[in-house]
Amino acid sequence: MDTLRYFTRTNRWVWSAIAVVLLWLVLALVTGRWSLASLSGITLSASFLALAGLGQMMVVTTGKGNIDLSVATVMTLSAYMGMLIIRGSDEMLFVGLLATLGLGIAVGLVNALLVIAVRIPAIIATLASGYILATATLLANRSLQGATVSPLLRQFASGRLMGIPNMALVAMALAICLAIILRKTAYGQQLSAVGQNRSAAALAGIKVNRVVATAFVVSSVLAAFNGLLLGAYVGGAFLEMGQPYLLQSVAVVVIGGTLIFGGSATAAGTLFASVLLVLVVTLMQIMGLPRGTQDMIQGAVVILVLAMAVQGGAFSRPKAKAKTA
């Protein structure tokens, strides 16, 4: 029992993974389809949520209740920017990608400046920058007239490799990369140290402000690329297209096992939690439940998974396992 408890504390992603399996079985019973192929469409939708969630995870890990509320508007503006710059031409795709990268870096740096230099709480700072970006999106919406998506980008966003959606492969690759960064690199160790105790991290020689700023930049860059890919997948850009990812990106981070007060993150858990939320929505849509009922059930599922994790000790920081003679 102690070994199991230690495992769940050090591998908090396991709770969201278990919930995914259970809900998939329920969905298979409801639809009568038991093949893994039935998860294909779900993983595709979950991939866009995972990209937003993984960026959000980096910000949350910095501690002090940091959350990036500009994610939704960055996604929407990025989609519009891609349509306006690329204009359906594969030749302009590289320029569009550079513009997307620039947007993400710029927004991330502004958010970091407001939080670090001006000392505005992250929730307020990113919400304010999100409002500014929303105004820019309205202007872009007026300028967007008949713009089409790059065929190459759309093919990538909606394509599959050996039956697996390309976007799912992108999400998994990103989760693996971030997991390696968090566990195996100096930056990952510094990020965890900053999230646990900033004063102690500073005394240890860690450049706290640089670590926090990097997390905000990563979040914004991932949101920008996510918006560009989402726009390519749906075939255009529209107002509020990133809005569903605002609170859900925070939900998948917490459900996945990242500590909301910072200091410890799990990329695998964020990935599994993204699939979990999409599974919940899909199941409720199949059952034809009203929107209000769907919202209530989503909240109940979040509470249930978190309750399982708390009971399993997943939300206390792992302690070193005692050695026996």
Structural notes for this entry:
There is one protein chain. The protein has 325 residues and is mostly helical. The chain has one domain: ABC transporter involved in vitamin B12 uptake, BtuC (Orthogonal Bundle). It has 14 helices and two strands. The protein has helices at residues 2-10, 13-31, 40-61, 71-86, 93-116, 122-143, 151-158, 166-184, 186-196, 198-203, 208-234, 245-255, 267-286, 291-311, and strands spanning 160-161, 164-165. The chain has a two-stranded antiparallel sheet. The longest helix is centred in the C-terminal third of the chain and has 27 residues, at 208-234. The two termini are 19 Å apart. Mean pLDDT is 85; it is low at 318-325.
Primary descriptors:
mainly alpha; 14 helices; two-stranded antiparallel ribbon; disordered C terminus; 325 residues; ABC transporter involved in vitamin B12 uptake, BtuC
Let me know the number of strands.
2
CATH topology: ABC transporter involved in vitamin B12 uptake, BtuC
CATH architecture: Orthogonal Bundle
Order of helices and strands: HHHHHHHEEHHHHHHH
Count every helix, treating DSSP H or I runs of 4 or more residues as helices: 14
What are the segments in which pLDDT stays under 50 over at least 5 consecutive residues?
318-325
Structural class, by secondary structure, is: mainly alpha
Major sheet details: 2 strands, antiparallel
CATH class: Mainly Alpha
* Count of individual domains: 1
Helix content: over 70%
User: What would you report as the Rg, rounded to the nearest angstrom?
Assistant: 20 Å
Shape: globular
- Terminal CA distance reads 19 Å
Return the average pLDDT rounded to an integer.
85
**How much of the polypeptide forms β-strand, as a percent range?**
under 5%
Give the spatial strand order of the biggest sheet.
1-2
